[in-house]
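Fold this sequence, please.
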Amino acid sequence: MSAANLPLHALRAFEAVARLGHVGAAAAELHVTPGAVSQQLRNVQDAIAADLFERRGRRLALTANGVVLQRAVSTAMEGIAEGVRQIAASPAGTPSAVRLTISIPPTFGVCWLATRLFAFMADNRHVKLHVLTIRAPNAVDWRRTDVAVVYGNPPWPGFWSQPMHGVEMTPVCSPQLLRGPHAIRKPMDIVHYRLLHEDDGTQWRQWLLAAGVPYPSDADVYFDDFGIVLQAARDGYGIALSDEVISARDLDDGRLVQPMSLKVPSARNYHCLCREESISNPDIRSFMEWLTAQSALSAKRRSDGTV
């Protein structure tokens, strides 16, 4: 028998004798005969190929090798006992507590994800979420992050990604822009208002080209935060292009309206990512699957008009 294949009961016998210093006392504690304990000690010593005890009067004292093994076995036994205690103290079937750290764009979090996260936690009480905000894919701190939602385009080498709902952009603005002498009723009416951007103007150019409207380059303002873009649109300072899933709450509450129905595919999309080596983690994979399912459901409800 090799040391690697020693059965647990042999090591338990060794640990008891090492602690109590007597074969008879160890046998009484383990509810076996002294002969059985002596046999297990011989098995351990033969497998280790080293003397583990020396006799001192009526007691058995550990040799230097015995002390090393006794420390290792005691630590292992304590770990097993602690695991048993934790399981016994938990309600039957209750999963162990899990902590997940997710990184998300702030506007995505405020406008769409926050309320859904509370529903997720209500259904998964063993999961403790820590939420960080990021403004760009390259800003994710992967030393702290388990799952990230990013707005961009793959590939991301070394990461496993899953697309969320297909983003389609359409103009949104304050209801006040639908009134007055320059009320927006057709695509050409947009030229009377400032265009609000979170990119270099590519997305607006794409929409205006599809609408057959010339690009009014002197009416632009650029922000690096989509939350500011939407707030400026709510306040009536211009027109933004937004995905109606992200803007769903504003549209439902009347803070924003869609003056036209024309939509164009976004140059970027929302994706959830994790490190390639993390996708085998069932909690991470389950959260990512939940996230993409929620995104697809939101998009379907907006499309069906059943929000």
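The CA atoms of residues 162 and 272 lie 5 Å apart. Residues 64-89 form the longest helix (26 residues).
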